[in-house]
Amino acid sequence: MTDLLFVNASQVVTCAGPARARKGAEMRDIGILTGAAVAVSEGRVAVIGAERHVAPAYEGATRIDCKGRVLMPGLVDSHTHAVFGRPRFEEHELRAEGHDYMEIAKRGGGIHSSVRDFHSRSAEDLLALSTARVATLASYGTTTLEIKSGYGLSLEDELKALRVVDRLRQASPLRIVATWLGAHEIPLERRASEATRAEHMGDLISTILPAVAGQGIATFADVFCEPGVFTIDETRRILEASRRAGLGLKLHADELATSGGAELAASLGAASADHLAAVSDAGVAALAASDTVATLLPGTMLFLGKSRQAPARALIDGGAAVALATDYNPGTSPTVNFPLMLTLGVSQLRMTVAEVVNAATVNGAAALGLAGETGQIAPGFAADLALFDIGDIRELPYWYGAKLCVGSWRAGRPCHPYEPELS
Ligand code: NIG
Ligand code: FE
Description:
binds fe (iii) ion; TIM Barrel; 16 helices; 18 strands; Urease, subunit C, domain 1; alpha/beta; binds N-(iminomethyl)-L-glutamic acid
């Protein structure tokens, strides 16, 4: 593999520091360097320093002229549901007419509608759809992508979902992390009685989880812990079993209504508690006192037409580690634009630019257990980089909705070669 030498960046935003999430006031530091070159060897960052010092040792390297743009760690999108079939645009209008997300779900729409569609599709069809969608996500600067199952629900269809994620992982230039979200919804036919609900819990814990863990096709387990979906007690049982099976833990916690998901995540030592738009003060305090990353998904609340957002300021000011992600999915957040989530982070969540940048890099990596591998430009870290067509990092959340990524690399290999000379 040839070495690379990145030169002429207006700023190199390193996010360099310890190989763990940035908490509280630590999120204000993103290490902006000017006049710096970055040398990459064997897919890893080798040296960062003044070009005149670094260049002589890398004469044989491929020189990448950043042309006065900003070079930063590739974005880490730590929460998506990117493997799905049909989009659900009809529900968008239904909500505008006053039908709530949960009401649509209770009538058999929402996730249930995606589950029926998913069941009818072949793995090849889902792989083709997902391959194109992942490429679009990458075109906005994402180099690490978490993808959840959860539109399968049954043993057969959850395995179909995770095998598609596995094939994406093997074929895609991005770094892809798989999460088993078998507990995304309770199948309609099993909602009928306590007995059938208990049967479903039994299947999740005793049949589907062992099959998923046994095949080694998921790194994390996740549960949609929400009133009307999985209760706190059910979530705890599923996640404790998942931990025993060797999976890391994540939760959809306190997304639409307060139920204590954040406190549960902290008490289980989960890698992340995600959503949190309805988190209680006690939940904020529990996360702040823990190592669980609070992953906020402002696109979801925006798209659902809710005026409330997660209390990012209270979380950060209380000392928690906050990450941002797209929640890319057909129901509540059909956006491929991760930088737009940074815009929402600043204007809706009142985060600073440095905070949203750390939230989308180092802290996203920590939410995936990858804080020692990606999310910062520092010697020894994977050369996961993104080049944006801006002169100052503050422009990234500013030009909202724009597609500014002109190239990205995962472990030194082109991920999104927008400009031919960057491939
Ligand atoms: O993160 N809340 C649960 N899961 C997704 C929505 C999935 C869907 O509606 O298809 C979310 O919002
Ligand atoms: Fe989600």
